[in-house]
From TrEMBL:
Residues 52-203 form the HhH-GPD domain. SUPFAM superfamilies: DNA-glycosylase (SSF48150). PANTHER family: DNA-3-METHYLADENINE GLYCOSYLASE, DNA-3-METHYLADENINE GLYCOSYLASE 2. Its EC number is 3.2.2.21. The keyword Signal does not apply. It is an enzyme of class 3 (hydrolase). It holds the Pfam family HhH-GPD. InterPro entries: Alkylbase_DNA_Glycosylase/TA, DNA_glycosylase, HhH-GPD_domain. The keyword DNA repair applies. Keywords: DNA damage, DNA repair. This is DNA-3-methyladenine glycosylase II.
Length: 217
């Protein structure tokens, strides 16, 4: 069963179901309070914004995306597909990111890719569709599914903040790897996306108590 997190009420309901499914999460929720839903623009613009911000500080990512989205307003895949690479480079995009954006723009233009339908696919299948695209890694795919499409079961296993929160919250000796995060999240299906919101909220509690943890996003 697919669940979508499109409103705060959706997330509230999902979190309540989660703590019933897994009582280990109840003390986490008591510490964090109800997490606020996090949403981004869907479609090509939303995915492009995430790509622009890969491996950059929040401030740098915002500055580059601000220039790109202003230069191409309205933002449409055809405009990026036709844009000269040197123009995109002057806006602050790396050669690798330009290549990724242009490839996705071509796939959309040729109707070989439909980003919107991913919201109604199983999370793992949608994840695999996105990571098959050049330059789209697991973290980017999961953030797009969760924040842009509201996919209730998207699970950002590679997110360092979620990993650290899971480590502390579940009493693990070491921070789990992305591969180890998959079985840890099995009890939270089909609401792994809601669990991610909860673990991000718990990470913020930990960070406020202990100072900035290495790898913070």
């Amino acid at each position: 069963m697919l669940i979508h997190l499109e409103t705060q009420a959706d997330l509230d309901d999902a979190i309540h179901k989660l703590v019933e499914q897994d009582r280990r999460l109840r003390p986490i929720l008591e510490l964090t309070g109800m997490p606020a839903i996090r949403q981004r623009e869907p479609g090509f613009a939303g995915l492009a914004a995430i790509i622009c911000g890969q491996q950059l500080s929040t401030a740098s990512a915002a500055a580059i995306w601000g220039r790109v989205s202003t230069a191409f307003d309205p933002f449409h895949h055809d405009a990026i597909r036709k844009a000269r690479a040197d123009r995109l480079g002057r806006l602050g995009l790396s050669a690798a990111k330009i290549k990724t954006l242009k490839h996705i723009a071509r796939e959309l233009a040729e109707e070989r890719l439909n980003l919107d339908v991913l919201a109604n696919e199983e999370a793992d299948a949608a994840h695999n569709t996105l990571t098959a695209l050049p330059g789209i890694g697991p973290w980017t795919a999961d953030v797009y599914l969760l924040f842009c499409l509201g996919h209730g079961d998207a699970w950002p296993a590679g997110d360092l903040a979620v990993q650290e929160a899971v480590k502390v919250g579940l009493g693990l000796k070491e921070r789990p790897t992305p591969k180890q995060m998959a079985p840890l999240a099995e009890p939270w299906r089909p609401l792994r996306g809601a669990a991610a919101h909860l673990w991000w909220a718990y990470y913020r509690v930990l960070r406020n108590r202990e100072g900035v943890i290495a790898g913070a996003k």
